[in-house]
Description:
single chain, 312 residues, alpha/beta, Inosine-uridine Nucleoside N-ribohydrolase, Chain A, 12 helices, globular
Amino acid sequence: MTATLPRPVLLDCDPGTDDALALWLALAAPEIDLRLVTVAGGNVGLARTLPNALALVGLAGGRVPVVAGADRPLLGRFRDEAAVHGADGLGGVVLPPGPAATPGLAMDAIRAALRAAAPDSVTLVGLGPATNFALALAAEPALRDRVAEIVLMTGALGEGNWSAAAEFNAAMDPEALAILLACGRPVTLATLDLTAQAFVTPARIEALRAAPGGACLRAAADILASVPPSRRFGFRGVALHDPCAVAWLLAPALFTARAVAVAVVLDGPDRGRTRIDRWGRDQGAALNGRFLETLDAEGFFALLAARLGALP
Length: 312
């Protein structure tokens, strides 16, 4: 039997508490050839998210280039989520400073990485607003042929977590999300409906603390413990969003999925809302997305503990 080669991945993030665990999960995965990490302002502004990404890579012993990207969306400005992530983005959990950022701009680094790749080979993983990937593909549309799949933590079937209609990442840059949805490559969505099933409770945090591991696993438990329990869930815990997108690449058997037509609303009070047609009601609409419907939560948290436990 021939061994499966690691999947080339470019990962864009805005750390952010849940980004932290997702980035560590990607760094710990032998199934992933993580070629580039790019950073947007997103959750707490680029002045915080960039050093956070560098610190996360450094603590994990990663050697991947980390490049600064957009400090604002295609239109307007990012709005931070410090109430969730803390003013520093990591819930006050202090990590050792990481290595220096790789010089350059994210959109250029993404284009260079795609140019160097084989056709239909690279997976783009987006954990924040879609700005950096959209800028790269809008600047050089032919590079979409290098992309095998785009996996995004974004969107919601129903209620949002930023507005009544919109999930945070989609709301921060819906024009960028629209570019990715229209680029002609397969787009997989880990929406709020999916990530609510990755439900973090005090018991799950304690189980993570009890698992064998090093500094990354201990910091992951501290970061999760820093996130205030959500009113949306009756203050019983919180949804763990971004690691779901990475887990899809590592263990797709933990998920069920459905082909869908998806679009994003660009104006009006529902700006940033994702319109996800699961049942083919929009006659003639192209099936341009894959909607992750269900998650084996116990398997997901076991995967998270085992992989983060293997890091330094």
